[in-house]
């Protein structure tokens, strides 16, 4: 559980960093900045998945495992949707 909390903290940090970068995207730097954002959101998704994978074993059983894993899966879905939207945005604006 401790590892998962750390992974989720890393994920949040990467998403915050991405939001900060998105607010500063400008003309000639668009491609580089978008690439950074896509990389960070993808890494956040990997952190979510790594955390979720930690619940696959028998180390934790019962209702708490199901609740925590369900919430992590939900966060991973939202992060995945954000990445898809950013990829679409990058393609439509950046060419």
Overall mean pLDDT stands at: 86
Q: Any low-confidence stretches, pLDDT <50, length ≥5?
A: none
Q: What distance separates the N and C termini?
A: 42 Å
- Quaternary state reads single chain
Helix content: over 70%
What does this structure look like?
The radius of gyration is 15 Å and the shape is elongated. The chain contains 3 helices and no strands. The model has no long low-confidence stretch (mean pLDDT 86). The chain is mainly alpha-helical. It has helices at 2-22, 30-53, 63-94. Helices cover 81% and strands 0% of the residues. The longest helix is centred in the C-terminal third of the chain and has 32 residues, at 63-94.
Q: Topology of this structure?
A:
Elements: H1 2-22, H2 30-53, H3 63-94
Helix pairs in contact: 1-2, 2-3
Please provide a brief summary of the model.
Helix content is 81%, strand content 0%. It has helices at 2-22, 30-53, 63-94. The model has no long low-confidence stretch (mean pLDDT 86).
């Amino acid at each position: 559980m401790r590892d998962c909390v750390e992974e989720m903290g890393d994920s949040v940090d990467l998403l915050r960093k991405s939001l900060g970068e998105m607010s500063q995207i400008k003309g000639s730097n668009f491609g580089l900045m978008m690439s950074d954002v896509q990389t960070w959101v993808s890494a956040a998704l990997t952190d979510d998945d790594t955390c979720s994978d930690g619940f696959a074993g028998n180390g934790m059983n019962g209702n708490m495992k199901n609740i925590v894993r369900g919430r992590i899966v939900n966060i991973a879905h939202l992060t995945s949707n954000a990445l898809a939207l950013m990829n679409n945005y990058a393609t439509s604006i950046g060419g």
